[in-house]
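G., the chain you wanted modeled:
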Amino acid sequence: MFYWIMKRLFIAPFVNIVFRPWVKGLERIPAQGGAILASNHLSVSDSIFLPVAVSRPVVFLAKSDYFTGRGIKGRATALFFRLSNQLPMDRSGGTASANSLGVGAQALLDGQLLGIYPEGTRSPDGRLYRGKLGVAKLALETGVPVIPIAMIGTDKVQPIGKRLPNIRRVGMIVGEPLDFSRYAGLAEDRFVQRSVADEIMYAIMRLSGQEYADTYAATVKARMDAERQAARHVSKRRPGRKSVSD
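Predicted structure as tokens:
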């Protein structure tokens, strides 16, 4: 409730005046009842622009690390995520991840809108990556529709690593709801889960126009981090140039 009031009175007016977001297909989001808003993930600011565009409150599943930070910055981040209607998502796997999905499923069964980024993390290079199975499990277990969403230009507003946003226009395209009732009773079938996740990502790809990479974004990020670490290590070991006087 606190975030909804803040959103209507302060956040939405500021975002609409400064960034002038454009939205297509907003009428495809149901006026009531549970639904999954499955979006691509280009920037941390996606979690601001998306709920501002939607009149109903949107609950998000966010990385649990955001809720456990220490120090002034960590606590401020945790406070922001709690006040902005976001739920901690444990991505370590096993029981912890299942419990996190259970919280999301309950929100859907309670008739709420649940925002989720099927890629699991922000795209490291602007491409669209393979969807994780969590979004499929939620859709199959609850029977709610999945609304594919494409965020446009948010990576230009706040690229990875940039704290202060660039002032420029962003967009959002809402696709036709996806119905997976044909898979009723098959929520635990991993082949069905994979099929559902892929169908969702295909719908997002068609809306966003992004190049699709059939691998997980987290895998690419880990490889890129390892390459940067190796480059720094080589740079430190490289002997300095000798001066002319040596």
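Strands lie at 22-24, 35-39, 58-63, 86-89, 113-116, 128-129, 146-152, 171-174, 212-213.

Shout if anything looks off.
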